[in-house]
Specification:
Layout lengths: L2 H11 L3 H12 L4 H7 L1 H4 L4 H30 L5 H9 L3 H8 L9 H7 L3 H9 L5 H6 L9 H18 L1 H14 L1 E6 L15 E5 L5 H12 L3 E6 L2 H12 L5 H50 L9 E5 L6 E6 L5 E7 L8 H14 L4 E5 L4 H9 L8 E5 L4 H5 L2 H6 L5 H14 L1 H5 L18 H19 L1 E2 L5 H5 L6 H14 L16 H7 L3 E2 L17 H10 L4 H6 L1 H4 L14 H12 L29 E10 L2 E5 L6 E4 L20 E10 L4 E5 L3
Parallel strand pairs: 4-7, 7-8, 9-10, 13-15
Antiparallel strand pairs: 1-2, 1-3, 4-5, 5-6, 11-12, 11-14, 12-13, 14-15
Amino acid sequence: MQTIYVSLISRSLSISEKSISKTLELLDEGATIPFISRYRKEVTGGLNEIQIEEIKQQYSKLQELTSRKETILRSIEEQEKLTPELKARIENTWDSTELEDIYLPYKPKKQTRSEIARKKGLEPLAKILMAQNEQDIYGKAERFINKEVNDAEEALQGARDIIAEWVNESESARNTLRNIFHREAMITAKLVKGKEEEGAKFRDYFDFKEPLSRCSSHRLLAMRRGESEGILRVSITPEDEHCMEALLRRFVKGNTPSSEQVTIAVKDGYKRLLKPAIETEFAALSKERADTQAIKVFAENLRQLLLAPPLGQKRVLGIDPGFRTGCKIVCLDAQGNLLHNETVYPHPPQNEKAKAGMKIVSLVSTYAIEAIAIGNGTAGRETEQFITNLRYDRKLQVFSVSEDGASVYSASPIAREEFPEYDVTVRGAVSIGRRLLDPLAELVKIDPKSIGVGQYQHDVNPSELKKSLDQTVENCVNRVGVNLNTASKHLLTYVSGLGPSLAQNIVNYRAKNGPFKSRKELLKVPRLGEKAFEQAAGFLRIPDAENPLDNSAVHPESYPVVEAMAKDLHCSIRDLIREKSIRDTIQPDRYLSEKTGMPTLLDIMQELDKPGRDPRAAIQVFEFDPNVKTITDLQEGQILPGIISNITRFGCFVDIGIKEKGLIHISNLADKYVSDPTEVVSIHQHVQVKVLGIDLERKRIQLSLKV
């Protein structure tokens, strides 16, 4: 690892070089981000997951830049043009744009106009013109007439082509233009002729123009999507006159005939080469920034969704509602195992309401059901009303559960592997029921892009999106912890240090040998060595283990510390966990050592206080307004209950119990200025909203939190 990397990352993130260096050492040794942030606080200086992820990203970018430098140095050396000064400059730059500017004059070119002119021997003429001293330019040009150059005008044209390329390859010219683009560039979108109907959803951008610096990520991504679908033409450009004036000031000297030729060449170089290059550069940079913001929003929404309150281990009846095809019913035990399934038809066209009601009441009794989960898609509200009107032999909680991604799961290889003998409708109902029991455990089986909480997720860089979402899932799984004896292979895959292969080995071992009795038994799993054990053990829980610490977030490497505490207080570890009065007598600083610092000791004390506690909130029952079933039931000024279903940079969407989600624009989130909607709202938050506007034609609903 290069010391320069540490220094550069430290300056960029304002984190000490020592913390950066130690973090990179841990990452290079194969430690995961959740493990480092939870169990190596003393080493990193208490860096959190986000900071460690930023360090990892910057480290990766610097490594890529180093590799690019090596390629460039090799290329220039092969051309025998690498001077000591040029080599030093390349090695000392850490700005990718500057690096490419340095390389541009040496970059192997295709058959350009300037290359053709050089082959005709016109570069000396270009240098004469560029000096701008020559008065008799035609006389000079005639000297360059040969078999390939017919006359003086053709010679001058070739020389101008070479000058145009010099202008394009000039670092100072490029930086001048970049400064103007930064200050003045406008992003413009225009409708492609004849695409009015096809592109109706892009109506807001048919004739759009605003400063690029003020263009929000969602607007930019919307325009780029319109462009990719052939609906819009999008351009980024400042005033041509300002750019031209700045370049002419830089390259044209005096008022000679040579200067006139240079002026023509500069204008040509700007329009044909330089402007398109810088526009492409700014289009890529603005898209990258928009992607970063959209991915950040998506990752935060996903985090909140994965950490949604679980019902816990209860016996659940799951319903995938439908009209013509009926409601698919599944009965699940407290671990989410499928006990029974069938279909009832309480809605039109069959209208078998009485028969369906008797069947559901019977299933609730037979399988000792404690809660009912109803999908919130088609016929969801009608099914909820039907279910709540039935009389049961016990008190039941009824929940509306998001169906987003359930159909994707039901047709996936994971679902086929879990339920090979059942069709997609049964699998979908199981997914809905399990989401109520434990959203995290079920949602990890679905591609995050299909869960319905993104912002233009299909338009952003797919590899960056996947990387961010995978890290988010991993962080959430490890933050909550995983029951080693009940977790699916898919959930175990995201546990720190495991992955698909070891997760499968754990499931196979469990099937062959029965439940794990201790964390230490993990070392008997094939191919699960000391390193994987170190990374994973603290995030795996065994509720009925002989050692109560095996059901806590205390890492096995810290068991001796807790054992020493119990020994000093003449009690068992169970007593230590059970009796607060005993714990209150512990003096953590007595147990400080080279390996165990105060951050770890404080974490241990917190964990002993509430061992294995689920960090997620408690679930709450929610009821929509029974009088609102379609968009036509809405009226301006109405106050309605709703659930935040998605958050974007420009506001949030709210489920108010109908097919269409309502939008609360960022300006209507609070009575004060809001720069980030997540400051005010969170996914699954229960809210009261006011209806501001209803657009029946476009199926859009405007809402406000300012009720």
